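#onboarding

Welcome to the new folks! Below is a worked example of what a typical request in this channel looks like: someone posts a single protein sequence, and someone else replies with the predicted structure as tokens. Don't worry about understanding the tokens yet, we'll cover that in week two.

Example request:
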Amino acid sequence: QVQLVESGGGLVQPGGSLRLSCTATASGSILSINTMGWYRQAPGNQRELVATITRRGTRTLADSVKGRFTISRDNAKNTVYLQMNSLKPEDTAVYYCNAGGKLYSLDDFASWGQGTQVTVSS
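Example response:
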């Protein structure tokens, strides 16, 4: 059972910045994590991809956040980060972390975090 623990959400004014963090924990049973990423869901909308990063560092960013958001990861810590700059009201949503990989048992896993609220408002 792999758990993803998120932190860093909150209320920020338009133009401000926030940094989200997400750490995968499984009592030492994680062999490797392939892709880690962030998704978001605003009220009344479907969950959408924000950014992903592979173990080797290949990044994918939604067009709506390019130039403003940066995704990075620390493989040694099983942690992914989302640096969000120049935030806009339309970035308001619950942000979910996602990760997939393999356990030492050689079973695959795919997990979601519990979500963290990001609100951009003056």
